Amino acid sequence: MGLTSYQRAKDLIKQGLVLAHSGKPERAREVFKSSFEVHPTAEAMTYWGWMEHQLNRTEEAIELCKKAILLDSEFGNPLNDIGSYLISQGRLDEAIPWLKRAIKSINYEHRHFPHVNLAYIFIEKKMFMKALRELEAALNLLPGDPELVRKINELRKEIN
Fold it and tell me: How far apart are CA 9 and CA 69, in angstroms?
């Protein structure tokens, strides 16, 4: 018995991630697109968007993430990714609601990312106490993470 379309799509996502982490965004993009064509998922569309961003096509990446959200409104990755892409464009205020939605999403493995992204925004806006709260929330999700501990300590020095 052969693979279901869903299983095949998941396998393609795994292949795409290997390519993405090997510095081959064009090829990874094509594999993520293929995954979506085999079996449309928010995950495939989000990763496809990530590759578009890597290829300096951030507006396309944002649109793909919005489509992914339509497929699964509780999948946190595209919500955080939109926030991250908006930050990369200097659109900090627009990023905040997307990141807050990502924090509240049900289906999200990397819950610390939107907190870290919000902390970055608040640091840029000189809102250090809010930034500290976000970094501490991230640390609660990743206890003992050395990078978060370092950032928190640096920020505490800045506040004092």
Answer: 18
